[in-house]
Design goal:
Length: about 425
């Protein structure tokens, strides 16, 4: 049984951490006026919300648990042939290519497959391997009749990176050519030149032109299947808005996952009405102020790792029993994005509206997929996209959140393979008619 003095000590530590976090964030947000006060109050309240865990689990134990989850999960280890595309402002955009028949270093799926492994873990690993083998057979059967074969290009979301597609990459690699890239200022791509020198703000249109640069470098010829999650889906829409002829000629299919065509300024984030309005009003100024004090804020993020993990889980996943190693992987992806990058990108979403551009994808097989418990880009936004693309397959996943491709990877993989099969069938029908 925990000693009373130990409980008291943890309680004091919790209050002190809450006060310290509130003070740090309030100082960082001072230039935003009332926003600084607001974020200090939110920080203090949120820190108090994790007090119970801190009373029962020591800081050292929590740190060791995070390290153990990082070591146990093979997520984000898959690597391909690297390449670099140059954006219009000179920013280096990093991408990797997995060729057909290639299986680069790294572990796939939910764990390494070991034929001698016993128990539940071994059975799950073998089941995952069997599922991948089945998907490969389906892909090769569909692609074997098509020439040239399509390349599947994955665009990730806000505050993530190409490794957020880990499970999809593991499922498809070797069976179909894929390209994974990091959006500017994310992952292994360079810091946006136009943002560093202040010459150009981040816009969704700019990201669409970045995608075009990656496609020109990594997929100079042949049909393309575009897959975008969240901001990556908006990037795919921006490509169609600015390069409709290119899309008509080269894009053979599209998957829009957990994304939106507009009206993001109306999203409530699971908050009460007044709280949602206050967030949309305060957030841009607060983030700008925090971005100017990035070193202070990053120290605060490290000091409040438990609070940050709780927020990530709430806004990334819809199921209460998500795999802890997967939840930790999502946390690592998000915490790797510097606060000044978070601040630079955030204003672009309020003015994003690409509903009209969606019609460019009406002529190709499409998949629109969302988690029913997504608090960032609600499933209703995916239903709106499906209304514009009536021929698209609409899939709304119960008990899944924003990072549905990590939370329900087998389901997402199944629908992506089905999309590639439909792309091949559609191209075969057009060839027959021709």
């Amino acid at each position: 049984m925990t000693d009373g003095r130990e409980i008291a000590a943890h309680a004091v530590e919790t209050v002190e951490t809450a006060a310290e976090t509130a003070g740090n964030w309030a100082r960082a947000g001072r230039q935003a006026g009332i926003a600084g006060l607001a974020i200090g109050v939110v920080a203090a309240g949120a820190a108090a919300g994790v007090a119970m865990e801190r009373l029962t689990v020591g800081r050292g134990m929590r740190r060791r648990a995070r390290l153990a989850l990082d070591a146990a999960g093979p997520y984000g280890t898959l690597r391909g042939t690297p390449g670099t595309a140059l954006a219009e402002d000179g920013t280096e955009l990093y991408y990797e290519v997995d060729e057909v028949g290639e299986r680069k270093a790294g572990k796939g799926g939910r764990g390494a497959v070991n034929g001698s492994a016993g128990g539940r873990a071994g059975k799950e690993a073998r089941a995952a391997q069997d599922a991948r083998s089945g998907l490969h057979k389906r892909l090769r059967a569909a692609l074997g009749r098509r020439s040239p074969e399509p390349t599947v290009v994955f665009s990730h979301g806000y505050c993530l990176g190409q490794d957020s597609w880990h499970f999809q990459r593991a499922a498809l690699r070797g069976a179909v050519r894929t390209v994974h890239w990091d959006q500017r200022s994310h992952g292994r791509s360079g810091r946006g030149h136009g943002q560093l020198d202040g010459s150009e703000p981040v816009t969704i249109d700019l990201l669409g032109r970045d995608l075009k640069a990656v496609l020109d470098a990594a997929v100079p010829e042949g049909p393309i299947v575009l897959v975008g999650h969240s901001m990556g889906g908006m990037t795919v829409m921006a490509l169609a808005d600015q390069f409709p002829e290119y899309v008509a000629e080269r894009v053979a299919g599209v998957a829009l996952i957990g994304t939106s065509a507009g009206r993001l300024s109306e999203v409530g984030f699971g908050l009460p009405s007044m709280g949602s309005k206050a967030f949309h009003w305060l957030a841009p100024g607060v983030l700008r102020a925090l971005g100017r004090q990035s070193e202070l804020v990053e120290r605060g993020r490290r000091a409040t790792a438990d609070l940050f993990a709780g927020l990530v889980k709430r806004y990334s996943f819809g199921s209460p029993d998500v795999d802890p190693a997967v939840a930790r992987f999502g946390e690592r992806l998000i915490e790797a994005t510097p606060i000044d990058v978070v601040a630079e990108f955030f204003p672009a979403f309020a003015v994003h509206d690409k509903t009209e551009a969606l019609v460019a994808y009406d002529a190709v097989p499409a998949l629109v997929l969302a988690g029913e418990k997504d608090l960032i880009t609600p499933a209703e936004h995916s239903r709106t996209i499906a209304e514009v693309l009536p021929a698209a397959e609409l899939v709304c996943v119960p008990e899944a959140g924003h990072l549905v491709m990590l939370e329900r990877p087998e389901l997402v993989n199944e629908h992506l393979v089905a999309l590639v099969e439909r792309v091949c069938a559609a191209r075969g029908s057009r060839s027959a008619r021709a």
